[in-house]
Amino acid sequence: xxxxxxxxxxxxxxxxxxxxxxxxxxxxxxxxxxxxxxxxxxxxxxxxxxxxxxxxxxxxxxxxxxxxxxxxxxxxxxxxxxxxxxxxxxxxxxxxxxxxxxxxxxxxxxxxxxxxxxxxxxxxxxxxxxxxxxxxxxxxxxxxxxxxxxxxxxxxxxxxxxxxxxxxxxxxxxxxxxxxxxxxxxxxxxxxxxxxxxxxxxxxxxxxxxxxxxxxxxxxxxxxxxx
Length: 227
Description:
Elements: E1 3-6, E2 10-16, E3 25-30, H1 33-42, E4 58-65, H2 70-81, H3 101-112, E5 124-127, E6 148-150, E7 153-156, E8 190-191, E9 200-201, H4 203-210
Parallel strand pairs: 1-7, 5-6
Antiparallel strand pairs: 2-3, 2-4, 4-5, 8-9
Helix pairs in contact: 2-3
């Protein structure tokens, strides 16, 4: 099964299967994984990177996607490529002589997903080829809001599909500040997703409640329903 994702920005890990260069890895950025792996295996003449040209075939084994923009993904790519030049990854130890490149890059990735600002992004860790899958080191598992997925992914253009209308009674007051909701699109209440829960709140009220224990942050990534 191939998962289709709109507005795709991903950072991937390649693994070389050429016996001469077996075990080498490459980190890159793409907006189209299917096209990009073909470019890498096609060489520089087909748009592949010079570091991978003539050394294939390559497998695209892992991709991190869900970045809000290409800039965010490119910054992630650079830090993954140059962990010892990134001021956010000074705590990551260098690769030992016995550590394979593949294992080292996975270790760096594990640290990155635990480090700000990346630890607060809505990322998905996707293994494109399950035979390469590794467990994250103990204590360095991805944050709970980052799912680990399996299978191929395809970038698709944004589809202008209108969401179906659902007739639900609009609550009158915010469950947190107790003020009345105003008519209009600028004051739409947020609801709890649990069936039977009547909690409804302003977005800003819910955000402040979720960030009560994280005052230095602007956007929450999780929280307990006040209801």
